[in-house]
Amino acid sequence: MTPFAKAILTWYDAYGRKSLPWQKNKTAYSVWLSEIMLQQTQVATVIPYYERFLNRFPTVTDLANAEQDEVLHLWTGLGYYARARNLHKAAKEVAEKYQGEFPKDLESMNALPGIGRSTAAAVLSSVYKLPHAILDGNVKRTLARSFAVSGWPGQKKVENKLWEYAEQHTPNTDVDKYNQAMMDMGAMICTRSKPKCTLCPVSTMCESNKNGNQLDYPGKKPKKEKPVKETWFALLYHDNHIWLEQRPQSGIWGGLFCFPQKEDQELATELNKRSITESTIDEEKTLIAFRHTFSHYHLDITPVLFKLSKQPDMVMEGTKGLWYNLSQPEEIGLAAPVKQLIESLPFEIN
């Protein structure tokens, strides 16, 4: 075991997190679920979602047997919805291909939808104590500073160098504790903007601490100005119901329910497709526009509320839609701005 690993483990025994919900009664399913939720999301945000999911789907087979709409509904608000779709696909694969038992080899685990090398290693090391290195965002930051690895970790050569250090220092014993300790280090000590170097167990070994340039590591992603796109939402309302349509599985908000939308202000064509004409519209009201930001662009949304005199049939070929009951909401996955608008509707309608 390297001096670096020994120091990290000693620190973990004294200060590491040991009472997170997924650390109790650990199973491959519960750890995998937590790891997927923790991708790009903080622990405090994840905990209530994790507990709801585990309560509703106690086993991977329960999750596999669920409808995707229900999975997306429980995920609503957690963001990065491709994670939820892949979670459901992976559960089905585990249930069907592996009879409800997660594989214990890295290659098979890594091949499951939405998992990847680091997540696969985190599950196998945590549950089965197999000596596999991990490299999530917290670990990348800690290693980049400790060993002065220059460059943005999104670049392959930088990531490969970090993997080398991760593998070099991951011990064969206590690997479950070590990997958790490395995640805790990044979350508690080697934080993004204000690292607590005086409390760090490896500060005397840390290259960036010696040089006083901790914030230079890891390197920043080359900045690109986010483009701005525009869209208009048609909020079709009648008798305390609002019309929603399920989006295609691929693309933004894949599989989630959304309002009919158009990339320009001419919503009339979208309404005509749904058998809505001027004679069926009692009132039209443009609501306050707002911005929704994705990882790669900004989307400026202008919602337009249409109060209808009657509820049209709304049959559109290839589209799954429903009249969403505002008093008794269905359990379906909603795009974040749709959820936001639905919550504000009572104030706009009255």
Automatic annotation (TrEMBL):
Upper classification of the organism: Bacteria, Pseudomonadati, Pseudomonadota, Gammaproteobacteria, Vibrionales
Enzyme Commission (EC) number: 3.2.2.31
SUPFAM superfamilies: DNA-glycosylase (SSF48150), Nudix (SSF55811)
Limits of the HhH-GPD domain: 37-188
Recorded GO MF terms: 4 iron, 4 sulfur cluster binding; 8-oxo-7,8-dihydroguanine DNA N-glycosylase activity; adenine/guanine mispair binding; metal ion binding; oxidized purine DNA binding; purine-specific mismatch base pair DNA N-glycosylase activity
Known partners and oligomeric status: Monomer.
Biological process, per Gene Ontology: base-excision repair; mismatch repair
PANTHER family named in the record: ADENINE DNA GLYCOSYLASE (PTHR42944:SF1)
Protein name: Adenine DNA glycosylase
Cofactor: binding comment: Binds 1 [4Fe-4S] cluster.
Enzyme's top EC category: hydrolase
